Each structure stands twice: as structure tokens, then as C-alpha cells.
Amino acid sequence: MSFTQRSATASELAPDRIQKRLIPLLLIISLIFMNFIARSIFSPLLIQIEQDFSINHSQSSQLFLYITIGYVVAVLISGFISAKIMNRRTLMLSASIIVLAMLFIGISRTYLQLGIGFLMVGFGAGLYPASGIMVITDMISAEDWQKALVLHDLGPHISMMAVPFLVAMLSSYVHWRVLVMASAALMLLAGVMFTIFVKNGNTPGTPPTYSNISALFRIPSFWIMVILYSLASAGIQGVYLMTPTFLVAEAGYTVAFANALVGVTRTVTILTLATAGFVVAKAPLKTMLVLIMAVSGLSLLLTGILHGLPLIIMMCVQPAFSALFSSIGYRLLSLVGPIQLRSLSFSLVTPIGALIGTGLVPAFLGYMGSNYSFSTGFMVLGILMLLSVPLVPTIRYFHQQPS
Questions:
Q1: N or C: which end of the chain has fewer CB within 10 A?
Q2: Domain count, the chain
Q3: How many C-beta neighbours within 10 Å does residue 364 have?
Q4: In whole numbers, what is the pLDDT of the chain averaged over residues?
Q5: b/e for 285-306, b at 16 or more Cβ within 10 A?
Q6: Is the pLDDT of residue 331 over 80?
Q7: Cα–Cα distance between 110 and 144 in angstroms, integer?
Q8: Is the pLDDT score of 286 beyond 50?
Q9: For residue 48, is pLDDT > 50?
Q10: DSSP track, 35-101
Q11: Average pLDDT of the segment spanning 58-78
Q12: Domain boundary residue, one of 149, 175, 207
């Protein structure tokens, strides 16, 4: 009898087609969705947080750097943690830390307490990426991995679209602390549902070794991809985090209109991914990457120059093209090194790119907003993107592939 039960359990845990694993997959997507909610909800709330704590743009933008520091540290050590407690429990730990951090932020009374809370949000979020992907590939058949990962990647963009709309609708009626604590409650719900219904992922992670890291660092094309990923990350998340503050403090829009506008720009991004994303995926890699970086850089440069309707148009174009980087960038990254270092290259590019793109860049934009102007900061970032375009043709594949 017990042998039959064990066989049934093993059968249930075996990888299967996406149609039969859709509910567990959606529960994992709910984790990444709430993961990004926890990291992005503070963007449209930044004005209220500045007023509540009597801090300036530079100080408030540094809070995103704390999130990124925590995120980078967690990503770097997540392999050691998941090797001990398995990937599934690592996701449970990730959700638990985010819940506690959000609740702590909700009751914070000093800037120091706020910074600690943001640091812990980043740490909890950073435990997710490697283990999340491993749990998905553990329960989905290999022939459906691409479909599952495409669905998974929609989670962050939908969250970045939903947050501004929700804050625009609710911030006039409830305090920002209530919204943060409500997000903690939803994260808790997602974590509990995952724990109950998702049983896959009882596999250990793989910690990085010095020899593998040093071998990867000696590949010049890897560092080119680090630069491109950092700039793309800045264009997707770094700019997003500071856009509501820019629209209110400098462009002269109301908080409600600014948040709604940011939501619209992210809606355009999702539509672009759902349509042009499939075309881009089949195009020559380097050619499309040149186009993506050039259009992203030019539109960001014009964001710092234009006003009114032209500004709004550029704000829709820029994130839409930046978001297309993901599928192209990761495919290129998988080709610049040996196959055995592929997973390590992903795990290293992610924290480095996050540190620059979602940590240093928002801090830089906040500094520019306090001392010069957000527009100048956007122009500088746009110019850097344009300067990165000539780097793309210099990327060399480890194994010869069509460009």
C-alpha cells in the first residue's frame, strides 16, 4: 500500500506538459508578480514617503539602492541557500522575508528603519530568480519550457503596469502605509497557496565556484553583455522607479495623472511583448539588439527634452523597446561562453545588472532631480545607451552562430 502511494507521488511530481501544470505554474507566477509588486509599489508612493519622512529626492531614491544591495547579496548567495534547503523552500523563505520586510516598512518611523526594510525587501526578492526558474523546469516538460518562461516573464511587466493604476485609484483614500501592508498580505496569500499546492522543486541549487567565475570573467563578450544588460535594466526598471516623481516634481502633472500615465506606458510594453516579441525572437540577434538599444537611447534622450504629448509618446516608446531586450539579451548571453557556464553567466549578469540598473541609476536620477533636473539625468542615460550601440557588433560567440 505504501509503495503504491509513493509511486503515485513520484508520478505527480514528474515533469509534465504545461496544460497539466498550469495551476502550479500560475501560483509560481503569482510569487514573481508579488515579488515585483513589493519592489515597485514604492515608486508611485515616493512623493508621499518624502513628505512623511521629510526627505528629498536624492534621499528617497537611495532607498531603491538599498533594495538593490539586498537583492544582489541574495542572488549571489542564493545558490548556497538553495543547496541546503532546496529550491522549493527557498521560494517559501523568499516570500516570508518579503512579507516581514513590508510589514516592517509599514510601521517604520525613521529613515534608518525605512532603509533596513527596503534592504530586506531586496534580499527576499533576490532569493527568487534562480530557484523560481528551477522549480518551473522541474515540473514542466522540456518541450514546454519556452512557453512556461514566456508566461513567467509576463508577471513582472503586469505588476509594473498594475501598481501605478492601483495607487492612482487608492492613494487618495488610504495612507501609503496601508497599501504597503496590504501588499504584504497579498504576498503572504501567494506564499501560502504556493506552499499548499506546489510540491515540485525539492532539488538543491548549485553554488558558484571560484574557477568557474574566473573563467567567465576572462571572456570579453561577457562584460559587453554586462554593460548592455545594466543599461537595459536601467531603461526598464531604473527609469520606471523615478518616472512618477519626475512627472509630478518637474513635468507638473498631478500624482493621480502621473501614476495613471506610468500604468499606460507599461500597458503598451505588455502589448509590445505579446506581439513584436515573437517577431524579434526570430530576427538576427545583433541586428535587433542594435535597434533596441538605439531606439531606447534616443527615446530616453528625447524624454529629457520634450514636453506635453511628444513627451508622453516617448515615455511609451522607451520602455516598450527596452523590454524587448530580455529575449534577445539572454539568447546572446547563452552564446558568449561555454555551455557548462551558461547558468552561471545568467546568475552573475543578473546581480551586476541590477546593482547598476535598478540601484545606482535611480540614485543617480534622484541626485540629478535634487541638484539639477530629472530631464538632465534622462538625457545622460539616453546618451550612454546610444554609446553602447557600437559594442554590439564586437560581441563574439563561443560557438559560431549566425549574427
A1: N
A2: 2
A3: 20
A4: 86
A5: bbebbbbbbbbbbbbbbbbbeb
A6: no
A7: 48
A8: yes
A9: yes
A10: HHHHHHTTTTTHHHHHHHHT--HHHHHHHHHHHHHHHHHHHHHHHHHHHHHHHHHHHHHHHHHHHHH
A11: 89
A12: 207
Residue 151, judged by CB atoms within 10 A of its CB (0-12, 13-18, 19+), counts as middle
The model's pTM: 0.77
* Main-chain dihedrals φ then ψ at residue 140, nearest 5 degrees: -110, 135
Give me 126's grid cell.
533576490
Q: What CATH code is carried by the domain that includes residue 386?
A: 1.20.1250.20
Q: Flag whether pLDDT at 28 surpasses 80.
A: yes
14, 26, 334 from 212: Cα distances, Å: 30, 34, 15
Share of the chain above pLDDT 90, in %: 46
Q: Where a domain ends, among 207, 236, 254?
A: 207
Does 304 lie in the same domain as 244? yes
Per-residue confidence (pLDDT) for residue 204, from 0 to 100: 84
Q: Calculate the alpha carbon distances from 88 to 128, 198, 272 in Å.
A: 10, 8, 32
